[in-house]
Write a structure and sequence with these properties.
The protein is an alpha/beta fold and about 240 residues long. The chain has a single domain, classed as Purple Acid Phosphatase, chain A, domain 2, CATH 3.60.21.10. Helices cover about 30% and strands about 20% of the residues. A five-stranded mixed sheet has the order 3-2-1-9-10. Strands 4-5-6-8-7 form a five-stranded mixed sheet, with no helix packed on it. The chain is globular, with a radius of gyration of 17 Å. Bound molecules: manganese (II) ion (MN). Manganese (II) ion binds next to helix 3.
């Protein structure tokens, strides 16, 4: 019975499956996905449907999942009416510049019940998760706490945009007694020494677990019970 965290799957279904095999993930284990299941990779919808089918896989929102959800009704309406999807600036930005096209394209191929299942699922997920395991406290949140990273911060007072968008520093954890698990910024962007591996802040109180799978680096996963790290090589072309 173990608890795992992984992030930024970005449609990398093959690598995710390989990771589940590597950690021998079973129905007795729990998997927290710390945001960005969607976009850039080719299998976002299949990946989302797989996660939805497992009661022991839990999604915490990332900016890409929210982006998809923000436009999901527009996609459903266009599908129902057999019309072109009306392109707002935000929708165009998502589709053309941020890897949303593959997600939207696969979504439009689904039957209506499957479309609505995804919409309903996305409406019921969370922006962060607090856990206590073996006496150790964790906060799982996609991008961190942004400009709200200061002592005494109350999570409920942090705007959700701060939880999914800002790029934070390696040590940006305001808590003395909570280990933060974040994704969002691929670790190679923190420096070449972190290329393809989980990056730890100096105090080891924050783990950056997006190892850049969709950018051709690797998929990382951490077992929160003992902080063991697991890796699967990316099948994507390296940028
Ligand atoms: Mn992100």
């Amino acid at each position: 019975m173990s608890t795992y965290a992984i992030s930024d799957l970005h449609g990398c279904l093959h690598e995710f499956d390989e990771m589940l095999e590597r950690i021998a993930f079973s129905s007795y284990d729990e998997m927290y996905i710390v945001g960005d299941v969607c976009d850039r990779g080719s299998d976002s919808i299949a990946l989302l449907q797989k996660i939805m089918k497992h009661d022991n896989m839990h999604l915490i929102f990332g900016n890409h999942d929210i982006w998809f959800h923000r436009h999901i009704q527009t996609l459903i309406d266009a599908k129902r009416e057999g019309s072109e999807v009306p392109l707002s600036d935000d929708l165009r930005l998502w589709l053309d510049c941020n890897g949303g096209f593959a997600t939207a394209d696969a979504f439009m191929e689904l039957d209506y019940p499957d479309c609505y299942d995804i919409k309903l699922y996305l409406e019921n997920q969370v922006f962060y998760k607090e856990l206590t395991l073996l006496g150790r406290k964790f906060l799982l949140v996609h991008a961190g706490l942004g400009s709200y990273c200061h002592k005494g911060v109350r999570l409920s007072a942090v705007p959700v945009s701060e939880l999914i968008w800002p790029h934070i520093g390696l040590d940006d954890n305001p808590f003395d007694d909570v280990t933060m698990i974040v994704g969002h910024l691929p670790t190679f962007l923190y420096g070449p020494e972190y290329d393809g591996i989980i990056a730890h802040g100096k105090k080891k109180s924050i783990l950056h677990i997006d190892c850049g799978c969709v950018f051709g680096h690797s998929l990382g996963c951490v077992r929160l019970d003992d902080m063991a790290e697991f890796y699967v090589p990316s099948r994507h072309r390296r940028l």
